[in-house]
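Lab notebook page, bench 4
Experiment: in silico fold of construct C2
Operator: M.H.
Input chain length: 107 residues
Purpose: comparison with the prior construct
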Amino acid sequence: MSKNNAIDLDNLDVDELRAITENAQQLIAKKQHQRLYDAYTQFEKIAEESHSTIDEILEAGEKLTKKRNVKYRNTNNEDETWTGRGRKPTWLVEALADGQSLESFAI
């Protein structure tokens, strides 16, 4: 069956519909497996090109954190910062509710 042919599901009986569902589930599993296999082989290639092992890369990935530039700092506690991304921290929400401006916390 080509991609352009549509099946009229209304004219199929329950057994035919179940067969289509089972075939579709098997095809989905096969394609998911192929996608992961392709990604793994690409990962192996990257590891080889960087003279590393996959385990070394994964271990490094756990240790590395993406550095974000801090844009705002709590004037009452310099350890509390915010990059301006995601939810505003509680200290900032409370300060804004008290009438302070966001700019007063900018670094």
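Observations: The chain is about 50% helix and 5% strand. The first strand starts at residue 72 and ends at 73.
Next step: discuss at group meeting.
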